């Protein structure tokens, strides 16, 4: 028994050192090299500031909708439903989201709706949508804002983020940044029409 205690204590001490000191220090050092030193990137005007990396609830027709969130975009606790894709409750929720989307976007075929518009992300805080998930909403947003579809589509194309280093991950769009630019565009168009 004594011959096992010393190696166990050494392993425990080594694990504590690595996991509670070295690893957090390494993450802190990497964060110091990122924008805003790992504190998150704030965007917005005046006193209205939002974290760019945390999804926001956009669910009215004049905005591009966000990816659904099981935690209502509450950054205090991220999470998912953990229901399997064959769970009847999960399937019912997804079907309700599909029906809601189709009711607000007439003329869209069910098969054309991207999965990220009707399924929540693993964290519930995903600020991005696929390019297709945003483009499929252009017609509705343009109509609600009384803007030409071509101008709204051009705004969308300006907000496409390329994959990391040009090869890791898909192209995506930050919905918060896009909707803020959309508000700015609408404001400028409104002031030009006065």
UniProtKB/TrEMBL annotation:
Membrane topology of this protein: Single-pass membrane protein
Keyword Transmembrane: yes
Record flagged with keyword Cell membrane: yes
Function: Part of the high-affinity ATP-driven potassium transport (or Kdp) system, which catalyzes the hydrolysis of ATP coupled with the electrogenic transport of potassium into the cytoplasm. This subunit acts as a catalytic chaperone that increases the ATP-binding affinity of the ATP-hydrolyzing subunit KdpB by the formation of a transient KdpB/KdpC/ATP ternary complex.
Record keywords, A-Z: ATP-binding, Cell membrane, Ion transport, Membrane, Nucleotide-binding, Potassium, Potassium transport, Transmembrane, Transmembrane helix, Transport
Lineage: Bacteria, Pseudomonadati, Bacteroidota, Sphingobacteriia, Sphingobacteriales
Subunit relationships: The system is composed of three essential subunits: KdpA, KdpB and KdpC.
Gene that produces this protein: kdpC
Name of protein: Potassium-transporting ATPase KdpC subunit
Family: Belongs to the KdpC family.
Compartments where located: Cell membrane
């Amino acid at each position: 028994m004594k011959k096992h205690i010393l190696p166990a204590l050494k392993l425990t001490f080594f694990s504590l050192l690595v996991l509670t000191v070295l690893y957090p220090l390494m993450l802190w050092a990497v964060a110091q090299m990122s924008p805003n030193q790992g504190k998150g990137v704030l965007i917005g005007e005046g006193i209205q500031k939002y974290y760019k990396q945390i999804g926001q609830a956009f669910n009215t027709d004049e905005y591009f909708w966000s990816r659904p969130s099981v935690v209502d975009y509450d950054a205090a606790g991220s999470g998912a439903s953990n229901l399997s894709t064959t769970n009847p409750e999960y399937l019912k929720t997804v079907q309700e989201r599909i029906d809601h989307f189709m009711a607000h976007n007439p003329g869209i075929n069910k098969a054309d709706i991207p999965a990220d518009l009707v399924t929540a992300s693993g964290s519930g805080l995903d600020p991005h949508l696929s390019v297709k998930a945003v483009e499929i909403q252009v017609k509705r947003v343009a109509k609600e804002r009384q803007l030409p579809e071509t101008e709204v589509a051009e705004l969308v194309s300006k907000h496409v983020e390329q994959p990391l280093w040009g090869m890791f991950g898909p192209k995506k769009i930050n919905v918060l940044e896009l909707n803020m630019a959309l508000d700015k565009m609408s404001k400028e168009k409104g002031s030009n029409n006065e």
